[in-house]
Amino acid sequence: MILIYFIISYLIGNIMFGFLITKILYRKDIRLQGSGNVGARNAGRLYGKAAFILIFLGDALKGALVILAARYFQFSEAIQLIGLALAILGHVKPVTLKFRGGKGISTFIGGIIAFNPLVIPVIILGFSVLYPFLKSFTFAGLGAFLFIPAVLFFKSNDWISSIIEIGIIIMLYIAHADNIKERLKP
Length: 186
Description:
Blueprint: H1 2-13, H2 17-26, H3 40-47, H4 49-72, H5 77-92, H6 105-115, H7 119-134, H8 137-145, H9 147-156, H10 159-175, H11 177-184
Helix pairs in contact: 1-4, 1-5, 2-4, 3-4, 4-5, 4-6, 5-6, 5-10, 7-8, 7-9, 9-10
């Protein structure tokens, strides 16, 4: 049953709302526009706030759905987080779009909030503290995510879940490697 859950989690991640919404509403292939990324941020730049919100919510729903499904089947927190990691992997490397997907942020946010709503103030506070220094939504958000494993560890004292959370965050950093390299150039 867990293996089926893992496969379905990856396939749920493959539902690319950025591609689908821009194709349906704007009759365009977002992969050929802007940054070429199918995520909410590129769509927002190209088509405005409504497109950003629709795609962000769709992608966030994928992460939340994977967590809620695991809870329904009473899987452990570690299994829930592995399912979330696979949904993010499906979003970043979707077989449906020749392994060229988004960056995984929206899927992570939806999933981690469904996993534990306590992370909402952690993300907001971390972002609020980091943004004035970094002047970048992406980097302030990625930085804020670093606080999540520590806060959740202090709440539950669960090393395995904390290690998986750190692994997920590393995966997000890898997905943003080009952005990070660009930002660090002198």
